[in-house]
Every structure is written in structure tokens, then in C-alpha cells.
Known about the structure:
It is built from 4 helices and 4 strands. It has a 4-stranded antiparallel sheet with strand order 1-2-3-4. A hairpin with a 2-residue loop joins β3 (145-156) and β4. The protein is α+β, with helices and mostly antiparallel strands. The protein is 58% helix and 18% strand. α2 (106-114) runs antiparallel to α3 (121-144) and α3 packs antiparallel against α4. The protein has helices spanning 16-71, 106-114, 121-144, 172-199; strands spanning 79-83, 93-100, 145-156, 159-170. It has one domain.
Amino acid sequence: xxxxxxxxxxxxxxxxxxxxxxxxxxxxxxxxxxxxxxxxxxxxxxxxxxxxxxxxxxxxxxxxxxxxxxxxxxxxxxxxxxxxxxxxxxxxxxxxxxxxxxxxxxxxxxxxxxxxxxxxxxxxxxxxxxxxxxxxxxxxxxxxxxxxxxxxxxxxxxxxxxxxxxxxxxxxxxxxxxxxxxxxxxxxxxxxxxxxxxxx
Length: 200
């Protein structure tokens, strides 16, 4: 009896579906990678623009400080805008604001401070004596204290971006008046205190 054996061999190659699936996965991976790269580049560009805006704002603040030191705070307008010089800075603009800063209500603060001794005649005398100078100090302080704001603006596509720096200034002449009032107030309060002690 003759026995016949058949040796069957299957090819181990890839089918068309497997090849297409591999290409699809590769394509999706490339798209995701490119989107991540694009996002990273946009983020780097945004950080670069913001860093440059901060640098420009610091430069403008230094220029404003020098102008105030040379000519006084009154030379700064309430609002002024302009462009930065240089081709590299064409995308940026600046705005300078000058604002009054409200002074604390020193009269109310003094009344609160002296409020613990309402029954004391000496306390009432001190409170009344202090109100006039305190009002004057509040007036002078309110006129002398100024806030300078530097705003640098630029566009990212259709979006407006900005960075802001603040600084505060006190007029030297007004500050001298405040010092004078404080000295006079101290002398007046000391006199009332000594007078109250003698009456006891």
C-alpha cells in the first residue's frame, strides 16, 4: 500500500487589509504629531511675544520714570498712546495713564483709634484737635499721590493681548507739606497731653 503525503505551505505575507490598517495608523500618528508640533510652536511664539511685551513695558516705564524725575509728575498726561520705534516692534503699541490715588480717610482712622476712650475729656480734646490737620493731610495726600500705568498691546491673530505695569509717585512739595503738618500735629498733641496731665 502506497502512502502519499502532501506538504502544504502557507505564505506568511500581509493581506491588503492589514497593509491598509497599518497605513491608516501611521497616517493618524503623523497627523497627531504634526498637530502637537504646531501647538508647541504657537505656544512658544505666544510666550516670546509676551516676554517681548514685558521688556517693552519695562523700557517705557524706565523712560517715564526718567521724565518724571527731570520734569515732575505733572508732565505726564492723563492718557497718552503711541507706537514703539524699530521694525521689530511694529506689532506693539503703548498707552500711559496717570491717575489720582484716593488718600485714606485719616479723620475716620483717628476717630477709630481714639474711640476707646470716649469718656475721657483729654481723648475728646485730642480727637478734635487732630481733625483739622488730618483733613489737611488727606487733601494734600489726595492731590500729591499719583498712579502711573503702562499698558503694552499687541495682536495674536484676531485676539487682543496686553501686559500692564504700575508705579506710584508722590509730589515732593506736597510730601514736605505733609511732613510739616505731622510735625505741627505732634507738637499740638504733646501740648494737650502735658496740659491734661497738669490738670489732674
